[in-house]
Amino acid sequence: MKVNFFHRGEWSCREVADWPSDNGFEDWLRLLGFETYSYLSLGEEFEVYEAADAEPKTGAALFIVGGFTLHHFVALDEVDYVDLRARWAPAFTASAIHSELEDINRALSRIFRVWHGHDPEWPCMHCGTTEEKERIERRRLKKA
């Protein structure tokens, strides 16, 4: 299987041992020399596995990014590991913030629905008379 390697700001692509069909994911990680589960994002799906030994067999860390399609990235040493995490931190942080904001929005929408009896996206005469009048007028013009 092809894996992207990161070293001092440069990328390369190399073959590593394929994931054997009779082995599980953890066995494949151990085969490559990764063991310690490090991080899972709340928003963007990614995982980081660190090297099992002080002298890494494949690299210092394995990043697995993606949802349906997975992309594998290996940081060759500790400096590359820190560099790669620093480069991706804004994306992962933004993704986590986005996820939290979605949760907050979902909770507020539920509260509004219980309190007011309809979705917050559709105003009514009680909660937004101007918006409701504009919506009724647009509907009337569409029919005409």
Please characterize this protein's 3D structure.
The model has no long low-confidence stretch (mean pLDDT 79). Strand 1 and strand 2 form a beta hairpin. With 144 residues, the chain is α+β, with helices and mostly antiparallel strands. It folds into two domains: 91 residues, no CATH class; 43 residues, no CATH class. The chain is elongated. Strands 2-1-6-5-4-3 form a six-stranded mixed β-sheet. The chain contains three helices and six strands; from the N terminus they run ββαββββαα.
Walk me through the topology.
Layout lengths: L1 E6 L2 E6 L9 H8 L1 E7 L5 E6 L9 E5 L5 E5 L2 H39 L12 H15 L1
Parallel strand pairs: 1-6
Antiparallel strand pairs: 1-2, 3-4, 4-5, 5-6
Which key phrases capture this entry?
144 residues, alpha+beta, 2 domains, 6-stranded mixed beta sheet, elongated
In short:
With 144 residues, this protein is α+β, with helices and mostly antiparallel strands. It folds into two domains: 2-92, no CATH class; 101-143, no CATH class. Helix content is 43%, strand content 24%.
